[in-house]
Fold:
Amino acid sequence: MTTPARIPFPVVDEVSRHCLQDEEPETVHIEVHLPGRLDPARMRKAFTEALHRHPRILMREVAGGWYRRRYEWELTAEPDVEVVSFPTPDGNALRDARTRALAEAPPLSLSPPIRLEVVQGGGLAATVLFLTINHTALDGPACLRILATAAEIYGGRDNAPAPAPTRAAREQPAAPENTPSNWARPARVAQGTPEHSPGNGLLVTELPLPHRPKDSPWTVNDQLMVTTALTIAHWNREHGESPRPLRITMPVDDRPRDMTMPMGNGTRLVEVPFSPTELTREPEDMPDLLRRTARRTRALKSLTRPQLGHGAGLLTAPVTPVAWRAALTRGLRRAAAPWTSTTLLSNIGRIPYPLDFGEEAGRAHAVWFSAPARMPRGLTVTTASTAGRLHLALRWSRTLLGHGDGDRLRDLFEHYLHTTEGTS
Structure:
């Protein structure tokens, strides 16, 4: 009998595993809207085949005692559970699937740690796919690759990724002068009207893609970064908070998008700072703010560093039992909470795959992602573009904000996104 292959948890997986909370599960939600309908048996078969084509996703956590030095993933030949389900269609099916994607993480003990719900029928004119991912094991871009493979198998059409946009070569960027220090204690998102219940809330909306002047030195990602900073600064002023520096965590993903894409948590995190004075300027100063942000983000992206920094590697070195390291990690996380970044902006960018499921189901016309929004950040902003539209997801901790707060933040985001357009 062949012993299943085992893989030690990478640094990102271990840190996430140490800090799991039942109240706010570490899930990533991907929501894909198709114009037509899928055949259940055929879709189950296609998705299972896609898992086999990316075998690194077929894994579960190995059980072990407190004294073990590592967490380990065990690769499996087959899924332990049926991954694809078709919930009973009714008027609340869409809402209920979205709620489950935030509140119920696929268990790490069963392979694979993902779940796909297909909502169709029950008065719904189209099909909505809900892919829920346990973020301790995998991230959104990796699982979108799985879904693209499933689409190709199901529809028989090419779902290869589009070429990445080419950009003019620039000199090695340097951070602009007067960049705020990352050692300063950043602003927190001001308390709104919390729902006093555990878990996360979510708002998804569709907006026009922001116009970007031709040959401008900034990218749409820089426009989104500035929009997020201005939105939170405005929100905090409305709630009586004194101006403080903002820091926005930005995932950077350098992996290829083709079949060679490594599965797992593959992004590295950088933090983009903003000073209070940068966020209280007049509208005519927007081009300068965008240029400064572009230089800042390019300088951060060009740095070579571990995914979570050098300290995380030391923290996860297998020299003591995992239970001891878990206690230390949780303690350090609590102590560092005041210095945690203000929020996270994850811009997936243009969805690189057609996500074309064939003639009957069609091609995706909307794709939303959302990232966990645990305190102390309490709010994450995730964007993606599909079919020439921007798909925005605001996700928040219910101990910080309520749904009315999400509506207000969406309105502010839309307003400031518009102010970044048409500048030169």
